[in-house]
Amino acid sequence: MLDVARSYVAAGSEVILTNTFRANCVALEGTGFADRVREVNRAGVEISRRAAAGRAHVFASMGPSGRLLAAGEISERRLEETFAEQARALAEAGADAIVIETMSDPDEAAIAVAAARDTGLPTVACMVFDSGSDDDHTFTGATLETAIRALLDAGASVIGANCGRGIEGFAALCARMRAVSDRPIWIKPSAGLPELDGERAAYRMTPDRFAESLSEVVRAGATFVGGCCGTSPAFVAAIRRTLARER
Ligand SMILES: [Zn+2]
């Protein structure tokens, strides 16, 4: 993990994330680590901090619980406690900010944002928009505008979108976020949907094509850009080259 994080710093990432995406007590159930949330999150921040070595900011990742609030699989109260425990652990360990990411339910995301905001750290909140005919709704059916307003109401310092079906359409999503709020925008698309190549998931998107599309996203108002699933340090290096040329 240390080497993975270091490879992003070497590629030019100004912000690196921790490997704590699933390190909440609900998602950790059955792994033997559910009662070691504090320890796991602390280790995640410490590894990223060592990799950053003062050359990059360390933002701590918090992902979904994996249970559907709307389907009654988990209560609001349980989600509040779950996210509060993780957010506190990340803040105590010295993260520079918390990133709530890959959320598909604005209600769950808002609970996580409130927990992160209670630590006093800046909070980035981003959703996956991969539903509806234009890929501009959350899995739960919320429009982009409704979801973003929920994140802002919960206290997000930065709003955004990540993951989903690929980079096409992110410039349009970003422009719509800009119309809702003047907060900084965080955009981290995936490299498209993987195709199975034998046993391995393979992504067809190249770093240069990805970087070209991201420069459109920057023109649409994004402040932070990067790559989610299927991207690599080579993508970060391509983004840096492309943005440097455009500046
Ligand atoms: Zn992803």
Layout of helices and strands, plus pairs?
Elements: H1 2-11, E1 15-17, H2 37-52, E2 57-62, H3 76-92, E3 97-103, H4 106-117, E4 123-127, H5 144-153, E5 158-163, H6 170-180, E6 185-189, E7 195-197, E8 200-202, H7 207-219, E9 224-225, H8 233-246
Parallel strand pairs: 1-2, 2-3, 3-4, 4-5, 5-6, 6-9
Antiparallel strand pairs: 7-8
The structure holds zinc ion (ZN).
Describe what this molecule looks like in 3D.
The structure is a single chain. This protein is globular. Helix content is 42%, strand content 16%. The protein has 247 residues and is of the alpha/beta class. It has one domain (2-246): TIM Barrel (Alpha-Beta Barrel). A 7-stranded parallel beta sheet has the order 1-2-3-4-5-6-9. The chain has a two-stranded antiparallel sheet with strand order 7-8. It has 8 helices and 9 strands. Helix 4 (106-117) links the parallel strand 3 (97-103) and strand 4 (123-127). The two termini are 33 Å apart. The protein has helices at 2-11, 37-52, 76-92, 106-117, 144-153, 170-180, 207-219, 233-246; strands spanning 15-17, 57-62, 97-103, 123-127, 158-163, 185-189, 195-197, 200-202, 224-225. The chain binds zinc ion. Zinc ion binds at residues 102, 163, 190, 228-229.
